[in-house]
Amino acid sequence: MQNLKIAFVTPEAIPFAKTGGLADISGVLPHLLSKMGHQVRLFMPRYRSVTAACPNLEKVFSDMGCRIKNDFFKGDVYRLRDEASGVEIYFIANDFFFNRQELYLEPSTGRDYEDNDERFIFFCRMVLKTIHADCGVTLDKVKAETGWDLRISPDLKNTPPPTAEELRILRQIAAPLLERRRRTDIETR
Hints:
This protein is of the alpha/beta class. The chain has one domain. The chain is built from 6 helices and 5 strands, in the order E-H-E-H-E-E-E-H-H-H-H. It has helices at 21-35, 48-53, 95-98, 116-135, 139-146, 164-187, and strands at 5-9, 39-45, 58-68, 71-81, 88-93. The protein has a 5-stranded mixed β-sheet with strand order 1-2-5-4-3, sandwiched between helices.
């Protein structure tokens, strides 16, 4: 089996931030994939809980930014290497978007933050910039592999799409794990 380079992008992962089952899968699957010989980079926001738990993260990029609507937002990128599994964990930081009491909900109302769309647009764009800057992957490769209509700043370069073998592995490993977790969540409701 060919060793893959995997970018695992998630809004939450244990032990850093958790609201539900997604964090469990996102916190475990990258380490399992790494132990299988794949090179895995996990990306998530640098929430307040991450800052409190990991105050001495390595800053790898400062003042990277992107435009959302008519505004330009800057952020920093931090990295932590899990020595046991070899997974590199990248945290996208922007205090305006991620230094909040809760991950997704306004504590006083229990409703979604009104700017959740902008928060995660920023996060995704910063992940793409980080992948290109730190890993040399081009934007075209990202577009081809995801099949999504991505609207990205023109200063990003293309990333090659995954090979048929990479897709097969993801479908055989990740999809069954997520389906089992989904069924377990439904059964416990």
